[in-house]
Amino acid sequence: MESTEIQETGWRGSPEIWLNAACQALTEGGIDQVRILPLATRLGLARTSFYWHFKDRQSLLDALADRWESRTTQPLVSACAAYAASEAEAHLNVISVFLDGQVFDDAMEFAVRGWALQDAGITARIHQADRLRLAALSEMLIRWGHAPGEADVRARAIYLTQIGYISMQVRETLDERMRRVPDYVAIFSGAGRPGPDELARFHARHGYLPG
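Now predict its structure.
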């Protein structure tokens, strides 16, 4: 019977290559697809090459969870702390994170939340990430004068809306999303819609030309 093992070629790839393949497998088919032999086949490498870079599958899964945090939690926390000349602009900074898949990896966010259904350790990491993200949003709102209790509720409205977009796999055109942004800002902040200059800068950030 023909073996599925690929012959050793001398090239073993790199940790990043294995991790990229694992990330792709996770987002395409879920955590059960993140296994050493299928990844080796995908990469055209011998399975033994994996062990030059990772101790075992669990070490790869740990690295995958770390990548998720670096591509989701860290960008959102940074956006909450970013400079803004007004509260509206602060909210636009946050919305920008979710509009740009190169900044916040929504495909990975969706896949990791699915992974958590099978792994209590990942569930715990998600809960910790949720707490960090909500805390960052609350702190941003408090800096703009909201009382702590109100800031907590507004932070939840912002966060649960954005995670809802991801969890429900909502698909909007850029035009549709941009039309809604000013009202989202008004609702989330309670401070009114962004001004024309603020919206112009926001649109330029995303390469958007209003019709």
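The chain has a mean pLDDT of 93.
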